[in-house]
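W.,

You were right to be curious about this one. When I first looked at the sequence I had no strong expectations either way, so I just let the prediction run and decided to look at it fresh. Below is the sequence, 904 residues in total, followed by the output.
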Amino acid sequence: MTLHGRDAELKELTELVGGPEGRVGVLIRGEAGIGKSALVAEAAAAASVAGMRVLRTAGAEAERDLAYAGLHQLLHPVRAGVAELPAPQRAALETALGLADGPEPSAYLVGLAALTLLADTAAAKPVLVVAEDVHWLDRASADVLAFVARRIETEPIALIATLRDGPLLDAGLSLMPLGRLPDDAAAELLDSVAPRLDPMVRSRLLAESAGHPLALTELPAAVADLDVLDPVLPLTERLERTFASRVATLPEATRAALLVAALNETGSIAETLAATEVVLGTPVDPEVLSPAVDARLVEFAVGCVTFRHPLMRSAIPAAATLSDRRRAQLALAKAVRDQPDRHAWHQARAASGPDETVAAALESAADRARRRGGAAAAIAALEQAAQLSEDPDARADRLLQAAGLAVESGRRETAERLVRDARNGPLSPRLKATASQLLSGFEDGVREDPARIGELAALAQSVAADGQNDAALRILWGAAMRCFWAEPGDAARRTLLDVAALFPADDPRLIAVAAYVAPFERGTAVLEQLQVLVGAAGADPETDRYLGSASLQVGAFDLAARFSTAAVPGLRAQGRLGLLPRALAVQAWSRVRLGDLAGAAPSAAEAVRLAHETGQPFMGGLALAVQAEIAALRGDHKQANTLADEAERAGLAAGARPVLATVQLARGLVALSEGRYEDAFADLRRLLDPADPAYQLALRAYCVAELTEAAVRAGQTEAMREILAELELLAATTSAPALHIGVRYARAVLAPKETAEDLFTAALRVELSGWPAERGRVHLAFGEWLRRQRRVVESRAHLRTARETFDALGMAAWAERARRELRSAGESSPNRSPDARDKLTPHELSIAQLAAEGLTNREIGQRLYLSHRTVGTHLHRIFPKLGVSSRGELADAVRAMGDGDGRL
């Protein structure tokens, strides 16, 4: 087949299928009939010649509301491999595809299962995945394709997708915009299709087609219907008119069969014939469609009838009467009565008004879709059920159920529309409460007016009074989280505490609420509860996530790291990628403050990636700011500034205070390392100013040591003493470890000569084994003080300990400072050799750590949502970087990274 005017596109696709390694794929984007399918056909043929296996799926407008219909089509030829998948993936995929019953699978576990299955298939023979008309794919299948596309790294898998607009645009595929043909190519195509056209008609067709390939190939067949005096019509309307005119000349039975086929989402000939028999009241056989084949409207494949173009499919129902369409839909409902979801949808499309029976059937279909992980299909079914509801309360309830699913799946516009529709009718008090709090689930309410916090508190109280404690606690938790991202003021915080007092105290969410709302006033009580509960960490990942967040708020970074580290595996196993970046960000933020840069770096990097993928810009900004802090501590000031700027842009978009606070902390660390002490003091002091967007009630108190260091070296000792006096008062209200560690450090550094030594000694007597960076900081400051007192010999031991600690932690900037002090004290230091933390990317470091723990490639892939082949490729790159040749040697190398502080 000759494709006119598409040489460049064909070359790109041929290169893709000729060597898919290192290539993700291509997204062909263009209007209907522009030639996307023709290009795909050529690429698939080239792939077959190159020895690739071609797996196909195609979206169909009628299947958009059937969860995982497209994925089922894609994976059906390789379904035997499902049995070899790891158990969690196998269960998720079988449930999603309706092959087994089970709990609602995570969309990400389904995606990982599909990725693993494709990678296993590609191990035997390279694979080309073809997905056509992605704009019509069901949302669940499109999400899986995007998940797979983002993770094709080294597998011999290529992906070619076609669409008009919508999904996959951010999935990392190369975009191939397909425009209309240039004049010479259009003329060649028309002449090849209709070589003997009248010159006047030829000119008219070239002008009206405007380089549109489908128009150039299809309009000549209806040239007798064209009047050169006709006004110009929109191309789609013109083509639909052309197709409809072909249908009008067909026998009645053929027209009936075509209408049924156009409304049937599967293309099954058996179903089409069965429904046509119901419409006509007489038996029919496949020959009934032969006139449509002769008219080039449809084609036969094995057991299927397919339309030659989507416009042909849409033109037929558009030209039919309403009664004919209803009759065909009811006939299809009867033909698929053993398939409850499809039966319900065809009944719904045939309904002429409210019908509670059909609405209930759709609600059941929504529940089945939700349990398979098809949120988009469930939303569509519930919305349609609402339209058919006879009772206004049932209508609103179904709309709000759909809105809740839209919130959970991050579809803000859909959720807002559904809530707005629900509010258009009467609402019971319960439904009013639901509608009021649903949309607050987006972005933790960061963009909302802080006054909204008081409204949510009142709503939580009202819902609790109605006996709905769990719903009320969810509302209260959402309001409390706003106290992390924004500053609502003392009155709003007090209101939240008053409402929290109405609930039973044994819910872990209440511990987190107290920590978020009153991190110092309630800090000691929260810490006591956390210390009791830490022994049970690992039992429930969601509870651990709550408690990790609570620990961070009250300055217990060691507990925050433990709880969040316990939460991460469970959230991974459950495929809860919406919550996973939150746990990872807490884990990374806390570990950096403890000095565990090797553990923090991969967590922060993964949090950034997953936050972007799951649509959480502010959580991603927070993780970016943590990456900036890591770079600053490692002495990579250029990278630190770049990351800080990027994080600041994310935080400033809505005044996300924790993001901006962490950005200022990173910038302060860079300025300290570069000797710009006045800049460092100015950067860090911003955290203490309630009028500054970087002010965050809890986090402001957890960088006291850095602030003190900057103040003393910038000649701002008196200003720092005033700050310390305020912090002393704050420390008297809470046992927050990070605050007390910082205050002890500041007391010693700011103390007069007569009391300084005792204060340094007291600071070192405190148990700081879990806080190695803070302990190293005290040793460094004490050593510097001793050297200034001309007690040089005594200073060396402290400075040496500081240097060794900071070297082990990878805190290059602080280690270099210890070296300089040691040189001034008359002792040279060996140069620090680069270790694994310098040689590996955060992603590689994460894989190396898991491999060192003894996990297999498959197990690592399940943890990190990668294929096992990708893991293997990364390990092949990691081994030479570390100078090792086996997993045993790798484990030794990774253990060496933790020698300084006993852990990674």
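Here's what jumped out at me. Residues 107-124 form the longest helix (18 residues). And, maybe more interesting for your project: Confidence is low (pLDDT under 50) at residues 226-231, 900-904.

Coffee later to discuss?

I.
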